[in-house]
Design goal:
single chain; 116 residues; alpha+beta; five-stranded mixed sheet
Length: 116
């Protein structure tokens, strides 16, 4: 006869192990950008905390949040990609630094390519 234990009422109940907590902070918030505030717009390429996806960060653009949103919208349309504004950073999906650089220089900004 096969005596296989199906249920044991004498066994103590154990709570299931908790899954690791995943941080929901934006990747740009975890960036430590110690960039000087010298009026130069810096274009950075970043992949950290984004699942291997590359984004172009536009840092150093001054203006109101509405002006940043308008600029981000224009840059996204120019590049044909998505993106967002987080704080004072504009994030554009993909490595499109050259396109953004030429557009910002056309608008009168001083632009530097920074980072890898």
């Amino acid at each position: 006869m096969n005596s296989r234990l199906v249920y044991d009422s004498d066994a103590p109940l154990q709570k299931p192990a908790r899954a690791a907590k995943v941080s929901k902070t934006p990747a740009s918030a975890s960036l430590n950008l110690n960039l000087p505030n010298d009026g130069v717009v810096r274009l950075l390429r970043d992949r950290k905390g984004r699942g291997g996806k590359t984004v172009t960060l536009v840092a150093g653009v001054s203006g109101s949040p509405a002006a940043l949103n308008a600029l981000a919208s224009d840059l996204k349309r120019l590049c044909g990609t998505g993106g967002t504004v987080r704080g004072e950073l504009i994030e554009i999906q993909g490595d499109v630094r050259e396109r953004i650089k030429s557009e910002l220089e056309r608008r009168g900004y001083t632009v530097k390519l920074a980072g890898g």
